[in-house]
């Protein structure tokens, strides 16, 4: 039975570790959320490690500067794993191959060191997608014709960010996961390592054990996130407790006519994907 705690502090006796989503929970791509950062800082100071678990397509070490720039304090986290970290394990066996790379140049650390040769959909060995080339102006349909060429050739599509959309300021922008969905409708095969898939959780739990200095009890690991089909589903599939941040990417869908969190609306959001969460809250607060 899902409950609705007033804040993270109400769960302090039940969990030793927090695996916390980043975009939509502690920042929106433009600014950090002070109350969420404060909640994680308090947890880290009084309860145990916070490991950030992000579907960013870049390796975690290359995302830290972005967090600093958005005002996310280092005190709010001790460990950090990304979809980019997990995706590099999929790229390693393909070193030296020809790739059709989809995504902005800012994601270059994802494929650094693999000696990949850039190619077109007509002659590539596989597809690597970290996002849209221009996510401010493009939509997935802009890629349909090129994706069909790759799908018809049977190329594997490696998706470095399973998120479909993300909130940037007040706007929702498309991510690599939306292109992966389109690719599958065209008959193409997709591989993903980020949330909700197991590889990124394996990395996050290993980091939590390193920080704790002992094995973790899975029922004492709390996943925090705002994406139903990434964060909630990932926790569900890994049999980990979950605190659903209902007002994140889903915004007003979780609210009642009075503007407050509506438990029935939250349940409907989760049930639409045949999922449940252990706890739910509007925004992450202490």
Describe this structure in words.
This protein is an alpha/beta fold and 286 residues long. It has 8 helices and 13 strands. The protein is globular.
Characteristics:
single chain; 286 residues; alpha/beta; 28% helix; globular
Write a short abstract of this structure.
The chain has 8 helices and 13 strands.
Gross morphology is globular
Q: Write out the strand line-up for the largest beta sheet, numbering strands in chain order.
A: 3-2-1-11-12-13
Structural class determined from secondary elements: alpha/beta
The share of residues in extended strands comes to 15-25%
Helix content: 25-40%
Number of strands: 13
Order of helices and strands: EHEHEHEEEHEEEHEHEHEHE
Name the poorly predicted regions. Answer: none
Tally the helices.
8
- Through-space gap between termini: 22 Å
Main sheet characteristics: 6 strands, parallel
Query: Average pLDDT across residues?
Result: 95
Radius of gyration: 19 Å
Write the layout of secondary structure elements.
Elements: E1 17-20, H1 34-46, E2 50-54, H2 64-69, E3 79-82, H3 83-91, E4 98-102, E5 117-118, E6 126-129, H4 144-152, E7 156-159, E8 165-168, E9 171-174, H5 176-185, E10 189-192, H6 198-212, E11 221-225, H7 228-237, E12 242-245, H8 263-271, E13 279-281
């Amino acid at each position: 039975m899902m409950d609705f705690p007033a804040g993270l502090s109400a769960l302090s006796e039940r969990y030793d570790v927090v695996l916390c989503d980043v975009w939509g929970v502690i920042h929106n791509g433009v600014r950090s959320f002070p109350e969420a950062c404060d909640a994680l800082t308090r947890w880290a100071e009084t309860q145990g490690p916070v490991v950030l678990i992000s579907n960013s397509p870049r390796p975690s070490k290359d995302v830290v500067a972005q967090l600093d720039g958005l005002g996310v304090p280092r005190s709010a986290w001790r460990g950090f794993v990304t979809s980019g970290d997990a995706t590099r394990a999929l790229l390693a066996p393909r070193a030296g191959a020809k790739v059709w790379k989809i995504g902005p140049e800012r994601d270059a650390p994802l494929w650094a060191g693999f000696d990949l040769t850039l190619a077109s959909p007509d002659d590539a060995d596989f597809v690597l997608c970290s996002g849209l080339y221009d996510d401010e102006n493009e939509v997935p349909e802009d890629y349909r014709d090129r994706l069909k060429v790759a799908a018809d050739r049977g190329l594997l599509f490696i998706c470095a960010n399973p998120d479909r959309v993300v909130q940037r300021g007040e706007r929702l922008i498309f991510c690599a996961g939306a292109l992966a969905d389109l690719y599958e409708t065209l008959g193409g095969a997709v591989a993903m390592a980020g949330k909700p898939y197991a590889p990124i959780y394996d990395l996050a739990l290993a980091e939590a054990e390193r920080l704790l200095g002992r094995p973790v009890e899975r029922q004492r690991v709390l996943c925090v996130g705002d994406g139903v089909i990434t964060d909630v589903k990932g926790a569900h599939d890994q049999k980990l407790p979950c605190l659903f941040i209902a007002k994140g990417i889903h915004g007003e869908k979780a609210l009642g006519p009075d503007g407050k969190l509506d438990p029935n609306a939250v349940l409907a959001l989760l049930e639409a994907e045949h999922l449940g969460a252990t706890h739910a809250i509007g925004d992450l607060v202490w």
